[in-house]
């Protein structure tokens, strides 16, 4: 192959890479002739989990449009599990990448931002008309702003805490409400205003400055006491006995923990100031 042909070949390869939709990850390996060859692509394993979470969010939207609200809510909870796994898989396999982080954020926006809003709107807010739109959009906007703030780490200096309600927890609050009340046989349209207020409140808490415990300082890699394993097993057993109500109760408790802890800290500071 002549030098001119080599240049033409390199140009064609670069042009082909420019047309590829995914070419973020780049690595160099030695080719058969000893030359360095650049390979472009993405890490497959963690992004499979992210894609599965994205599909779960999409499935929740389609199910809500078909009136299958229980399936829709369950799909959102499945997306939460998958979202928790993709990052851990990436860290365990040393396959973190900027592409994966951006893809995960976009997946979260669908699964924890748009999907819960569509589900709750279809279940309870349609009869409210434009007011229902506003309630649902406040939630969507809150999720988008929460994810943007998380990506830029604004205000999150202490890794033990999140600033604002995390978007998966906001989704758990809304999806758990739909799932639990549907199991009770409640028609969402009968309590539309209350549902709308709770939905909008979830969106506002996501952009609030309330601090929520992140659980990131818990070490599950080393040895743990047998009692901890027993508690985890019992926890799964309790949840499986009545998943819709217990999961919703957990997310309601976590949601109110931010304001409660903030009020408690404010009270403690007030007491300290009075004592001085």
TrEMBL record:
Molecular function via GO: CDP-diacylglycerol-serine O-phosphatidyltransferase activity
Keywords annotated in UniProt: Lipid biosynthesis, Lipid metabolism, Membrane, Phospholipid biosynthesis, Phospholipid metabolism, Transferase, Transmembrane, Transmembrane helix
Membrane-protein topology: Multi-pass membrane protein
Pfam families (UniProt xref): CDP-OH_P_transf
Any one cellular-component term (Gene Ontology): membrane
Reactions catalysed: a CDP-1,2-diacyl-sn-glycerol + L-serine = a 1,2-diacyl-sn-glycero-3-phospho-L-serine + CMP + H(+)
Principal EC category: transferase
Predominant cellular place of this UniProt entry's protein: membrane
Keyword Endoplasmic reticulum: no
UniProt family annotation: Belongs to the CDP-alcohol phosphatidyltransferase class-I family.
EC number(s) recorded for this UniProt protein: 2.7.8.8
UniProt-annotated location(s): Endomembrane system
Transmembrane stretches, start-end: 42-62, 68-85, 106-125, 131-148, 160-179, 191-212, 224-240, 246-264
Protein's UniProt keywords contain Cytoplasm: no
GO biological process: phospholipid biosynthetic process
Protein name, UniProt field: CDP-diacylglycerol--serine O-phosphatidyltransferase
Database matches in Gene3D superfamilies: 1.20.120.1760
Organism the protein comes from: Halopseudomonas aestusnigri
């Amino acid at each position: 192959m002549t030098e001119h042909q080599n240049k033409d070949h390199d140009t064609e390869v670069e042009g082909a890479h420019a047309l590829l939709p995914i070419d973020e990850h780049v690595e160099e390996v030695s080719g058969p002739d000893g030359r360095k060859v650049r390979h472009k692509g993405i890490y497959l394993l963690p992004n499979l989990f992210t894609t599965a979470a994205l599909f779960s969010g999409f499935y929740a939207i389609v199910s809500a449009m078909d009136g299958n609200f229980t399936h829709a809510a369950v799909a959102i909870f499945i997306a939460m599990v998958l979202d928790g796994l993709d990052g851990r898989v990436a860290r365990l396999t040393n396959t973190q990448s900027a592409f994966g982080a951006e893809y995960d954020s976009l997946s979260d926006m669908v699964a924890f931002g748009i999907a819960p809003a569509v589900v709750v709107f279809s279940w309870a807010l349609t009869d409210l008309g434009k007011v229902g739109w506003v309630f649902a959009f406040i939630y969507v906007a809150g999720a988008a702003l929460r994810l943007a703030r998380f990506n830029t780490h604004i205000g999150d200096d202490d890794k033990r805490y999140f600033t604002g309600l995390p978007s998966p927890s906001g989704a758990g609050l809304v999806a758990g409400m739909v799932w639990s009340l549907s199991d009770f046989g409640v028609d969402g349209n009968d309590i539309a205003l209350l549902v709308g207020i709770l939905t909008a409140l979830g969106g506002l808490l996501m952009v609030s400055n309330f601090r929520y415990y992140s659980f990131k300082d818990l070490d599950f890699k080393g040895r743990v006491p047998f009692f901890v394993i027993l508690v985890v097993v019992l926890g799964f057993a309790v949840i499986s006995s009545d998943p819709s109500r217990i999961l919703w109760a957990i997310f309601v408790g976590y949601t109110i923990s931010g304001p409660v802890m903030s009020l408690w800290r404010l009270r403690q500071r007030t007491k300290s100031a009075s004592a001085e």
